[in-house]
Amino acid sequence: MAERKYTANDIHILQGLEGVRKRPAMYIGSSNSMGLHHLVWEVVDNAVDEALSGFGKNITVTLHKDGSCSVLDEGRGIPVDINKETGRPGVEIVFTELHAGGKFNSAVYKSAGGLHGVGASVTNALSEWCDVTVYQNNGIYHLRFEKGGHLVEPLNRQGDTKKHGTLVRFKPDPEIFSTVDFKYDTISSHLQESAFLMKGVRFIINDERSGQKQEFFYQEGLVEYINNLNESKRHLIPVVSFSDIDSLTNIEVEIALQYCAEDYNETIYSYVNNVKTGDGGTHESGFRAGITRAVNDFAEQQNLAKGKKLEGSDIREGLTAIISLKVPEELLEFEGQTKGKLGTPVAFQVVSNLIYNKFTYYLTENKENALLIIKKCIDSQQARIAARKAKDEARSSKKAKQEVILSDKLTPAQSKEYAKNELFIVEGDSAGGTAKKGRDRIHQAILPLRGKPLNTDSIALDKLLHNEEIATIINTIGAGFGQSFDIEDIHYGKIIIMTDADTDGAHIQTLLLTFFYHYMRQLITTGHVYIAVPPLYRIYKEENKHLIQEYAWDDKGLEEAKKKVGAGCKINRYKGLGEMDAIQLKETTMDPKTRLLIQVDINDPLLVEKKVSVLMGKDSSIRRTWIEKHVDFNQEDNFMKEAK
Fold first, then answer.
1. CATH number listed for the domain at residues 222-386
2. Is 314 in the active site?
């Protein structure tokens, strides 16, 4: 067979915004719910950049009944005059050309999150339609795009006004996204987060679908952010905040922090020009270096360290900190379009110097609080050393065993290649037995649960350790828990929660995730925790003594599977994992080649703290209110039916 030649005619040039529609994940991370909401963030970020520059005090997001979303700001309005280079209005260029905008000019924006100039155009490219209205120069100007940014209504003046700002309304394209349903909680949490970061700017969300409406406005900014995050925790010290502008770089730094008495986790959230840097960067590294140096130097000067330097992890245990930078455009370096990591080298030294100087002064002037902090850090150091010593002794002595009540239900994996091993935490003995038969014995371990685990959100530590389910999970994962947890010692690359697709299964997932969140948070933040997704439907029929079957995970997949299997098929709506045999469970839910897994992550810290405290906290009245608002008790479901 002759080899097909590769010629210049095989090279295709994607025009305009076609590349965005072809590869949306390159620009917004994914085409799922996370990517969908990223469209909103891109438009909101533009409004925020106007407010950052001192233009406008109100930003309003509206979720409309037709599935569209609009963002209104009170900024200067995107320019409507003609660009000399292209002969087109500025607003048209911003919404149709990648890497076009005013963010490249420091005379227009002192600091801005929209560094790459692709946000508005990407939102337009991935929308079914996009309407833009500009209030500027005493006029109302409008233009409209459809199906990937094609201009269908050129810019035209529609009337007079004294208003100023920009209104962008867009409807995400269902051909691009797996879901086009905007989540009120997700957007409201994002706006609240922005309000914390921008003192004196009001953020409003209005959901026309449900009638919900909220306003977020804070005068103390990051201090109120910390108070909100740590509302249900016992504080070691009040919130401390620092701010300054570096005279050489003009980088503005604002930091708020607080130590909590019984928290084993390090909670640090960072932002640059109001964009969350979830992957950290030079500013976070500078903060860690500066606070470590400040605490160690103070402890040494006060003769509290006893000759032993504290490690950074000792100092940051129980610490909640928010780091917010405003970086001038000419110094701004992000890694990737989604701006998850700051790469600006000079930010390290700027933040390190600020936190070292300011926190050293705080410790010196607040001796009582300083002693509480140093004592907590030393306790953490001693616990870390003791935990390491205990692990070393356990490895070297066959007799060294901890007296804990453990379940005998664990079926371990045979391999010692821990990174490749998977632990399935399974609901019930029945499903556990089936999973044992269908597992890969080399790399997959099965731990069936006897009933529901404890709610660890508000339980005493001694009671927690005497619970058989929790003690077995801790022992099985093998990395300790709380302050002694060490991610390097985990025995499994994946911890997979596998429960029935019903309310009991969801409750078990929530209880386990609450435990991991409080006592093994690094498991989540480093990407080791997953939720198994068993199919909802089995579609089958016998034809000429041959079984034809397909599986479906949602109603859309059900319709497709019915067509594949053909007329006369039967539909089994699975009530639980126990209804599957070992082969079915393996090929649908356990086999890495065919299964679906949801990786658990903390993308929105504010929303996570809210949900954990509401759903798992002591105050049942708050939980009742949330359930009544969000849960539909009138839904009907048919579990067995014959397809027509």
1. 3.30.230.10
2. no
